[in-house]
């Protein structure tokens, strides 16, 4: 009986992975970019650096601040290790794309580059209340690398709050 259950679980997992691969293979470039951006936002809230770094090309530069990929990595790592909700001891920030702000224009027909514009809202959830710690607009260029779409260069402008998240 346990073997049948284990076999069914393995088959189910393989089927799920296969369906995801097929759906991913037929997804549009816009959907792939959106998925990578959403994964970076979710990674931020879950204190996972990899989804964020996967979205940024190794040569990434933010032209507004001069920050490069490693500078962004250091700033985020500092927040991950230094910021905690005093009550829950969890990382208190969540990132999300502001609804209806995402615009993606993939260069056709080659689909090797894309222009992107969106607003990111970083919310502080300390004490069970939510407040906007930083909201900023980002405009940038992505390239379709071997590992997927990555942000190569960007500019940003602060709408409210501060990058210091205070």
The global form is globular
Helix/strand order, N-terminal first:
HHHEHEEEEE
Structural class: alpha+beta
Poorly predicted residue ranges: none
Task: List its salient traits.
Nuclear Transport Factor 2, Chain: A; alpha+beta; six-stranded mixed sheet; single chain; 166 residues
Describe the structure.
By secondary structure, this protein is α+β, with helices and mostly antiparallel strands. The chain has a single domain (27-161), classed as Nuclear Transport Factor 2, Chain: A, CATH 3.10.450. The chain has four helices and six strands. Strands 1, 2, 3, 4, 5 and 6 form a six-stranded mixed beta sheet that branches. Strand 5 and strand 6 form a beta hairpin. Helix 2 packs antiparallel against helix 3. The radius of gyration is 18 Å and the shape is globular. The model has no long low-confidence stretch (mean pLDDT 89).
Explain the layout of strands and helices:
Layout: H1 2-26, H2 29-45, H3 49-55, E1 56-62, H4 69-82, E2 93-97, E3 103-106, E4 113-124, E5 131-145, E6 148-161
């Amino acid at each position: 009986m346990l073997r049948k259950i284990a076999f069914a679980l393995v088959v189910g997992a393989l089927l799920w992975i296969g369906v995801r691969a097929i759906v991913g293979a037929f997804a549009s470039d816009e959907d792939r970019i959106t998925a990578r951006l959403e994964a970076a936002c979710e990674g931020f809230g879950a204190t996972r650096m990899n989804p964020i770094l996967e979205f940024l090309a190794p040569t990434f530069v933010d032209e507004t601040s001069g920050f490069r990929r490693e500078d962004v990595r250091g700033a985020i790592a500092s927040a991950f290790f230094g910021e905690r909700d005093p009550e829950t001891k969890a990382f208190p920030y969540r990132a999300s794309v502001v609804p209806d702000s995402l615009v993606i224009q993939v260069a056709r027909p080659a689909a090797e580059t894309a222009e992107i514009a969106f607003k990111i809202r970083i919310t502080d959830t300390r004490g069970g209340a939510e407040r906007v710690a930083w909201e900023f607009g980002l405009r940038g260029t992505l390239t379709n690398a071997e590992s997927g779409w990555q942000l190569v260069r960007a500019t940003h402008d602060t709408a409210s709050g501060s990058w210091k998240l205070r």
